Amino acid sequence: MTKEIDARGLACPQPVILTKKALGDNNEITVIVDNETAEENVRRMAQSQGCETTIDKKDGNIYIHVARVCSGETTREAGQEDPKRPVVIVVGSNAVGRGNQDLGEVLMKSFIHTLIETSPRPDTMIFLNTGVKLAVTGSDVLEDLKMISGSGVKILVCGTCLNFFEIQDQLRAGTVSNMYDITEAMLGAGRLVQI
Amino acid sequence: MTGNDFLVILFESVSSTLLAEKILKKQNVAHKIIPVPRHISSDCGVCIRFSAAQLDEVEQALSGRVPYQDIRKL
């Protein structure tokens, strides 16, 4: 029988933790959540573990059926054998460098603009702390980020940070992410550039 | 990016660029801070890019307020 995990009403990242735990002992589980952020996070984590997911929605609840496709452990963790390891840029604030904030903000605009015109592009960009403000309504670099995202760069925006600044509903570029995805992207990087 | 013709306005200092940006923002003149293009200068500087169609607006907004060095084609 498929194991059922009731993760309704639990705060991020609990649903992801429970799912990960359950997947350790089961090849097939159903996770019940009650919001789309949890759905997205669980689904992404499951897929990164080599699982297939299907979604059912009933009475305001979201049922995520997770099934391990192949029993072989993913080799992603070792990483070294992957010939093309991703380039990851971590944007940890809305300004480049420490010191003068105004100057740092100018440098950030200049940097993000230059990313559009430079190759190779990074594979993933991660926005943390005040960095998340770059991806919301009113940001001067929003159009640039949309363009970068449109060109295939994965943009992960820290959900905890959006929540802290109370701007979750203003995100306009990239996807809301959690510390699992963010940490995995960092550790799986071939090259990590921190801004 | 588009077929649009762009100009850049160059300043003597970064703080002048910042001041000019503030003024343009306040007056709702579309603009963008970009690094000074390599063919113009090899210095690590920033300048403000705007659409050629807005030359008058930019000049009007900044004249007498922020000294600028030059306006060049991108």
For the largest sheet of chain B, list the strands in their spatial order. 2-3-1-4
CATH class of chain B: Alpha Beta
Overall SS class of chain A:
alpha/beta
Largest sheet of chain B: 4 strands, antiparallel
What is the H/E string of chain B?
Answer: EHEEHE
Report the end-to-end length of chain B measured between terminal Cα atoms. 12 Å
> How many structural domains are formed by the residues of chain B?
1
Helix content of chain A: 25-40%
Number of domains of chain A: 2
Which CATH top level class of the largest domain in chain A fits? Alpha Beta
Main attributes of the structure:
heterodimer; A: 195 residues; alpha/beta; Translation Initiation Factor IF3; Hypothetical Protein Ychn, Chain: A; 6 helices; 9 strands; 24% strand; elongated; B: 74 residues; alpha+beta; Alpha-Beta Plaits; four-stranded antiparallel β-sheet; 2 helices; 30% strand; globular
Task: Outline the structure in words.
The complex is a heterodimer of chains A (195) and B (74). Chain A folds into two domains: 66 residues, Translation Initiation Factor IF3 (2-Layer Sandwich), CATH 3.30.110; 108 residues, DsrEFH-like (Hypothetical Protein Ychn, Chain: A), CATH 3.40.1260.10. Chain A contains six helices and nine strands, in the order βαβαβββαβαβαβαβ. Chain A has a five-stranded parallel beta sheet. A four-stranded mixed beta sheet of chain A has the order 1-2-4-3, covered by helices on one side. Chain A is elongated, with a radius of gyration of 18 Å. Chain B has 74 residues and is an alpha+beta fold. Chain B has one domain: Alpha-Beta Plaits (2-Layer Sandwich). Chain B is globular. The relative contact order of chain B is 0.35. At the A-B interface, helix 3 of A face helix 1 and strand 2 of B.
